[in-house]
Amino acid sequence: MLINSLFFHAFESICCSKIPKMMLSNESLSAPTSSTTCFENGSYTVEKKSVPKSSSSDTPNPPLYIVYPTEKGTYPVILFLHGFSIPNTSYSSLFEFIASHGYIIVAPGQTLFGLFKGLFVASAIGDVDDAALTSNWINKNQGENLQRELPSDVSPDLENVALAGHSKGGKAAFALALGHAYTSLKFKALIGLDPVEGPNTANRIEPKILNYIPQNFNIPLPIALIGTGLGDDGRCGFFPPAAPWGCNHPFFFNECKPPVCYFVAKDFGHMDMVDDWLAWLSGMFVSKTGKGSYADMRRACGGIFVAFLKTYMFDDAEDLSTIVDSPSSVVPVKLNPVLWLQS
C-alpha cells in the first residue's frame, strides 16, 4: 500500500486537535529568508575504523564501527543502530556525511552468530541489549573507552549524545529510550530512520512498543522521524514490504509526544539511504527503491540529522526552521509531510 495524502491530511487533523502548537510545511510564493548548508558536505575531514569484539573488558561487545572528525576538538556522539541483518559498515556514506559536520558516530554491529540469529529469531531484544552494552561501554569512566579508539586530540562530548537507528534498529532505539534495557548513558535526542515494529501488525517482534495510542510513548527526549514513501511497498511476491503499513513510521509518529519532527521522503524506499551497492542489491531483490539519487537521499537524511541535533543540542534552530518553512527550496529530495510539533 502506498502512503497517500488523504491519510496524512487526516493524520494532521488529529495532531492539530491534540497538540496546541505546531509548525507545518506551508511554503509561500516568496523565497525563503535564510539558507542552510546542512545538506552540503561539512568542513571536517573524516576517518573511520572498526573495533572488533573481544573478551577484554576494555573492548566492546558487539563489534563497533566508528566514524569521526580528525580535527582537534570535542564532538557530540551519535549511537546508531543498524537495520535487520544490515552490516553497520554499509551506512558508511551516510555516516561520513554526518561526521563531516562535527559528530562522532558509533555503530554497533553483529557477530556472524548474531547475523544468523537475526535471520531466524523474530526478536529485537538482543539488539536492544547490544545497544545498551555499547552505550555503557561508551559511558564507562567518563568516556575513556571511546576516547581510546579516537585520536588523542579528538574527544567525545558525553553531554551531547543522540540515539538513532534504521529499520529494526530504529525500533531498538525507541525500545532503549523506553527503558527496555538499562543504560547509564544519558541521551539528548532520539532519531528514527524509517523504524519498523515487525513484519505485520499481528506479528510485531519483541519488545513490542507500538500500542496505537496517540502520544503514548513515555520518552522525555526530542524526537525526529524520517520515513520513506515506498517503504510499505513489497518488491515482488517473494518478499513482503520492508516497512509494512501498521508497523512503520506514521504509527511511531502517532505515539510520540512533542517536541517531535516528522519528515517523509515521498519518492524513496526503505533502503535508499544505505551505501550504493546495498541499496542497488536490495532494490533488485528485496525492497522497492525510488528513482532518485541515492546520494541525494543520504544528503537529505544526513542534513535532517544535523539540523535537528543543532536545534536540540546547541539551541540553534535556524536550519530546522528553514527546512520546515521551505523544504522544496533547500532539501535535495521531496518531503511530504513536513511536521514540527513543539509543544
TrEMBL record:
Enzyme Commission number, as recorded: 3.1.1.14
A Pfam family hit: Chlorophyllase
Name used for this protein in its record: Chlorophyllase
Gene Ontology biological-process annotations: chlorophyll catabolic process
Main enzyme class: hydrolase
PANTHER family in alphabetical order: CHLOROPHYLLASE-1 (PTHR33428:SF10), CHLOROPHYLLASE-2, CHLOROPLASTIC (PTHR33428)
Protein keywords: Hydrolase
Transmembrane feature ranges: none
Keyword Hydrolase: yes
Lineage: Eukaryota, Viridiplantae, Streptophyta, Embryophyta, Tracheophyta
